[in-house]
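Progress note, project year one: complex with iron/sulfur cluster.
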Amino acid sequence: MPRLNYHHNLCTACRSCELACAFINFQEFNPAKAKIKIYLDRSSGSISLCTEENCIYTPDCREFTCTNYCPSGALYTTKEV
Ligand code: SF4
Ligand code: SF4
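Model obtained:
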């Protein structure tokens, strides 16, 4: 089963992935409902990402929709080993 992954050095914290996820799953542009969360530490500039455990099992998201809306190419999928 593929899993969602990301290159932290490419992420710009634009949060497009959160909007895409919320829309494909809830038909709302509401980042609070997204199964992917981007955290930007403004003091250090570091960016971290987390996803809910069940994000890859969402019926409406078998194609990892968020990866198609990541403008920097930071999001990608990997095969689980
Ligand atoms: S893979 Fe689908 S459910 Fe998971 S974070 Fe991306 S858009 Fe959301
Ligand atoms: S869409 Fe891509 S660049 Fe934007 S916050 Fe998400 S992972 Fe980062």
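The domain at 2-79 is CATH 3.30.70 (Alpha-Beta Plaits).
The longest strand covers residues 2-6.
No further modelling is planned for this target in the current period.
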